[in-house]
Design brief:
5 helices, mainly alpha, 434 Repressor (Amino-terminal Domain), 0% strand, globular
Length: 81
């Protein structure tokens, strides 16, 4: 039997991606234009995603994870403290 996840838990996980993307960018020495180029997304779209002005889609998460060379689970995991 599949255990369903509480939707509130999922939305909290998804919010983690902004922090994690910034951490991964810093580790790679990338700025937002570089991430946009590598992920094949527009600069404005990446900026809006990281500023929480637009919701991320699975498509965008996959593109960001591939560009940053991390798994989707790493992208939405709670940031290390």
């Amino acid at each position: 039997m599949v255990e369903l996840t509480d939707p509130n838990d999922v939305s909290e996980d998804i919010r983690n991606y902004q922090t994690n993307v910034r951490i991964f960018m810093e580790e790679l020495g990338w700025d937002m234009p570089r991430l946009a180029r590598e992920a094949k997304l527009s600069n404005s779209h990446v900026n809006n995603l990281l500023a929480r002005r637009t919701a991320g889609s699975l498509y965008c998460f996959i593109k960001l994870a591939r560009a940053l060379r991390v798994g989707l689970d790493d992208l939405v995991a709670p940031p290390a403290e």
